[in-house]
Amino acid sequence: MPDAVNILLEPSVLAWARRRARLDAEELAIKLGIPEEDITKWETDGEIDVDILEKLADATHTPVGFLYLNEPHKETLPISDFRTVGGAGIDAPTPDLLETVYDAQRKQAWYKDHLIQSGANPLWFVGSVSLRDDPATVAKKVNAAMGISTVKRAVAINKETALVAMIERIEECGILVLRNNAVGIEYDRRLSVGEFRGFALSDPYAPLIFVNSADARAAQLFTLAHEIVHIWLGVSGISNLAKTYSGEVDVEKFCNAVAAEILVPTNELLAKVSGIPLTDYRIARLGTYFRVSVLVMLRRLKDIGAIEEKQFQAMYDARENHFKELAARAKLAAKKRDGGGPSFYNAVLLPRVSPTFAHALVGSALEGRTLYRDAMGLLGLKTTSAIHAMGKRFGFVS
Fold it and tell me: Which domain holds residue 16?
């Protein structure tokens, strides 16, 4: 067996790679199958085995070349970062978030070129409103243009059905919607709701919204509505609504205010609460009707003056703590479940790559206008037979 070949690298860079992937030393040691002490050592003196270095790069999803730098590589998101906690920016983006944004940009670029070559016109609503506009008025315009209504959501069987129906109407208006809880189809790389809930890539031809589907269904509905407003503003950006919709940035405040009106119009809410006591049960029922979380419903009731600040804060804190407990249990249960991702067609045809996008790309590949290699890369497929299988499902081939 050949002797190990050690090299000297900058210790702070090796530590940066681990932190960048949101791993502590114990977690990384388990991934690499080595003692935790080895990690502590190379993050102190920079001496590391070449073979282990390759594994480190793979485990942290870091380009190997970055590990040879004299200082940590400075990475920034290619779109505006509106994520804040207590008025301050949050940690640098993880490789999972960066790759998710880059993948969405590649899809958007292809689809925009496809639309322009097909003679499509710019979408009239992109950038059609400003921060000076009245949120309630903007919400009415969005609902009318997108065909979104409280009644349509209320009659849906459940929140998932309401969410899917809303996405279908939005895509019919020309906005691509990607909805995923992992990096592409790498199911072991789950996206963190704590890092981001969604983002918008504004464009006059091919606007795109990404929703982190690791979030609760009601929360995804709010994220979707929030990102729609980003498109109407013509402002790309990434969001993490840590406090439901209490944004600290002007753009986020506006998007949150409009999203709240889109999902829970003031006039409809006033009619629903007029003359009734707002017990926990009734508030939960209101959330079910409007298909929003109890937290959003509490904020809306406070917005219209139906509950006082003291009552709101007590109920909000109680529900937030309850949701945190549920999330912790769900995370623990997920670790105990057997692995395995969703089926091929669920991964491709459903929200992960946008049915609209997949339909256009598969059709283009089958017609010879897009290389199969490029189509497979954009869809996360490994064989040309998968393209043909999708073509059959879309009705392109018999």
Answer: 6-67
